[in-house]
Amino acid sequence: MTEENPIIIEDREELIYMLSEAASLEHMIMCQYLFAAFTLKRDVSEGVTEEQLEAIKRWERQVSLVATQEMLHLTLVNNMLTAIGSIPFLGHPNFPQRASYYPAHVQLALLPFGRDALQHFLFLERPEGMDLQDAPEFDALALGSLPVARPSLELDTDQIVPQEQEFATVGHLYRGIEQGFRHLVAKYGEKQIFVGPQRAQATQKHFAWPELIPVTDLASACQAIEVIVEQGEGARGDWQDGHYGKFLQIAQEYRQMKEQNPDFEPARPAVGAYANPPGGVSEVTLISHPLTAGVSELFNASYQVLLQVLLRYFIHGTESDDELTILSNVAVDAMFLLIKPLGELLTRLPLGPEYPDKLAGPCFEVYHSGNILPHRYGAWTILHERLLELAAYSDKLAGQDGAPKELTTISANARQPRRYAGWAAGCDVTEYALRWM
Fold it and tell me: Is this prediction's pTM over 0.85?
């Protein structure tokens, strides 16, 4: 059993800081799971048997389910941020992050499904107090190429600015946040802490998660945290149904199948790669194949629009209920009609002649230009414009010589948001919302 230092939260700024750290971490963990799911093989033509393919399909469903629950966790964290008067947080540092942005033992990278990925997932989702090693790849890179890792700090409770704090596990982080909520409510009173508009909470009305609850007081904040922790590491002392238990079951089955057939490879050798090197990240792999680079850029542009749409939803501005329905519908469409098929396609495309044995993969790049569009008229105009640009770019890619047939379907998917003509400022949004429904 490992000993965990307490997380100290003495004011609202520190609570916002730690909740934002939690949001960023949930977001990046979700991306890791999506990446692993995208790399899994889909057909016996990829060198697997029918029996192996059935196992692969089962693993893909489980990993995708966990990724979907991470989306729920990210939504609940943003409900907590909104509840205490903060803006939503959907940003994250770009991959890979090895011992730099988070505590030194929390390293994040995009790995294809396999032994190392599963060990890494178990390490991230391990219950509080459990001793478990990360995948060897991460142990070897624990010090990374960056000269300074995040230090272990002696917390100064008299300091007026938010401070970095170490956490051993995701559960440890959330228990600290829960204690922070309790402390601040005891210190200032519930009404003083929960000052955000109740209308601005994400609810089941727009996203079909039975566990999605509005956060309006201490009890609901603690309930949201309990959902996150129990789905991740499982209830205290009972982790079988949590993410840890799900990954452990997959890892055991994977190991058994590898012992029976050492040549069994359920995933494609994909690498999270960039068409252009992002700032602030070292050790990146660059794509030199022109078509693959274009698909990668389309993925990242679609991902950026998805985040912008979600942030506009979470702000809740002056949108009507019908407009919020449009925002949530566009976000879901972007995920399943663009992000998912583009991610899967990338893992079948070449990186370039420099990497003959590797395939590409999405990198979930976040741009420095930011995601928040705070003004309703400008936001809807810009998003409508951007969706049309995505459709035009996808048409161009699909028309290139040698373009895979999947791009034609993705191009048609990219044109779907045109049905939401209400994106054009000044249109009758209600009419188009009803048309969609």
Answer: yes
Q: What is the pLDDT of residue 169?
A: 82
Cα 71–chain centre separation:
6
Over the stretch 319-329, which tens digit does the pLDDT of each residue have? 888 889 889 98
- Beta carbons of 63 and 113 less than 8 angstroms apart: yes
